[in-house]
């Protein structure tokens, strides 16, 4: 039975990639970090399991990458994208010259999240499982920790700074006063399947004609299974939140010759993806939000692990500076908001414009047909999807010239 009161320099709510990354970096800097989660670990997390080259770069900075690569997880050297009309675009990460590692990985979240959590603990972070945080502790307008329930007992955690890393759920954001209702989300669904032939070393994306506003994916795992799923964009005229995603996934697999005979290995699960950054507050007096709790998920690709870990690096730097200041509750949020705006604001404002244009079937058909013919166009398209080329590049004269010549 856990004690009913804790103290720490920083309390981090959520032990996913964002929370564990922030915990590891702050513990490494010598701070007393308490990470809490309502789940017992290891635990499954519904996700595509893909780690982009950008995510691999963060894992390398954290010092976790050697353990992952030596464990034999699936190495991904490129991506295959198929347009609604069947046009095919292959890209090899090592050919792009974008300053990133030349590969990605596929690591089930059951294993990735627990490895990151244990890495944070090895650096000195404490962890309490089974704690359902229900809201913040406050002194006036300042958050001074969190409270919740564990094992039938009320629990209080007092800390000068709180980092909220709870993913897409807004249950805790309501009492923090950040969100009152769930914003529009990308709806996703995935399952693990065996018997998928011809798995390669690529992420595979299929903009199926029948999906209209979304795509299917096939991500290979090292043990011969595949993570297969769908993502449905939130801007289409249909209400995707009410779409029968299970039926859509079954129909997609039935249409796909490589998936028609695949066998499920476990349940198929749906989940939301919040892509609403920077529309809501990222911090307040005494607290910071990070990862998908901020809506930091790429609106086109649905990738959020790389952004979760990167934003946690930003949060850890801001928290460290704040804790060294005279007023951590005030200095941390201001510094963090500025850093987030500099790192992601321009990209997300642009990608929210581009996504509706670039993911229309006619645009995709032309883009994916022309990209293999033009290295600049191929690099621009891949760079936008990896989050390292400005989406405004989609409107540059050279981009349009190569699309229509």
Report on the architecture of this protein:
The chain has a domain of 226 residues: FAD/NAD(P)-binding domain (3-Layer(bba) Sandwich), CATH 3.50.50.60. The chain contains 11 helices and 21 strands. The strands form 4 sheets. Strands 6, 7, 14, 15, 16, 17, 18 and 19 form an 8-stranded mixed β-sheet that branches. About 1% of the residues have low confidence.
Rg over alpha carbons: 21 Å
The CATH superfamily of the domain at 5-75 and 105-182 and 276-352 turns out to be: FAD/NAD(P)-binding domain
The CATH architecture of the domain at 5-75 and 105-182 and 276-352 is 3-Layer(bba) Sandwich
- Tell me the helix content: 25-40%
CATH class annotation of the domain at 5-75 and 105-182 and 276-352: Alpha Beta
Distance between the termini: 68 Å
Residue runs with pLDDT of under 50 for 5 or more positions: 237-242
The backbone outline, from C-alpha atoms, is: globular
Structural class, judged by helices and strands? alpha/beta
| Largest sheet features | 8 strands, mixed
Question: Whole-number average pLDDT?
Answer: 93
Q: What is the β-strand count?
A: 21
SS field, number of helical segments: 11
């Amino acid at each position: 039975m856990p004690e009913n009161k804790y103290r720490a320099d920083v309390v981090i709510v959520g032990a996913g990639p964002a929370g564990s990354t922030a915990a590891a970096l702050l513990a490494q800097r010598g701070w007393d970090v308490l990470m809490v989660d309502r789940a017992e670990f290891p635990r499954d997390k519904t996700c595509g399991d893909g780690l982009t080259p950008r995510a691999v770069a963060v894992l390398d900075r954290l010092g976790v990458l050697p353990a992952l690569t030596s464990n034999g997880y699936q190495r991904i050297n490129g991506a295959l994208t198929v347009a609604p009309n069947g046009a095919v675009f292959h890209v090899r990460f090592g050919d792009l010259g974008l300053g990133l590692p030349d590969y990605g990985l596929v690591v089930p979240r059951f294993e990735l999240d627990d490895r990151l959590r244990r890495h944070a603990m090895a650096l000195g972070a404490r962890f309490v499982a089974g704690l359902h945080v229900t809201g913040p502790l406050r002194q006036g307008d300042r958050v001074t920790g969190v409270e919740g329930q564990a094992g039938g007992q009320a629990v209080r955690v007092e800390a000068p700074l709180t980092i909220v890393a709870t993913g897409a759920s807004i249950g805790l954001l309501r009492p923090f006063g950040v969100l009152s209702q769930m914003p529009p989300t990308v709806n996703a669904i995935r399952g693990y399947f065996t018997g998928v032939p011809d798995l390669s070393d690529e992420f595979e994306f299929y903009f199926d004609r029948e999906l209209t506003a979304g795509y299917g994916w096939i991500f290979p795992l090292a043990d011969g299974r595949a993570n297969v799923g769908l993502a449905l964009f939130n801007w289409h005229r249909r209400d995707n939140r009410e779409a029968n995603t299970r039926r859509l996934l079954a129909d997609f697999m039935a249409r796909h010759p490589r998936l028609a005979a695949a066998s499920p290995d476990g349940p198929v699960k749906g989940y939301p993806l919040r892509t609403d950054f920077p529309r809501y507050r990222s911090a307040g007096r005494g607290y910071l939000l990070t990862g998908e709790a901020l809506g930091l998920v790429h609106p086109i690709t649905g990738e959020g692990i790389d952004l979760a870990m990167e934003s946690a690096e930003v949060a850890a730097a801001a928290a460290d500076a704040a804790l060294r200041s005279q007023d951590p509750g005030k200095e941390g949020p201001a510094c963090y908001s500025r850093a987030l705006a500099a790192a992601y604001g321009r990209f997300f404002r642009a990608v929210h414009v581009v996504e509706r244009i670039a993911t229309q079937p006619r645009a995709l058909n032309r883009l994916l047909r022309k990209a293999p013919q033009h290295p600049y166009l191929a690099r621009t398209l891949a760079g936008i999807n990896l989050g390292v080329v400005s989406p405004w590049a989609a409107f540059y004269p050279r981009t349009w010239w190569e699309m229509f010549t």
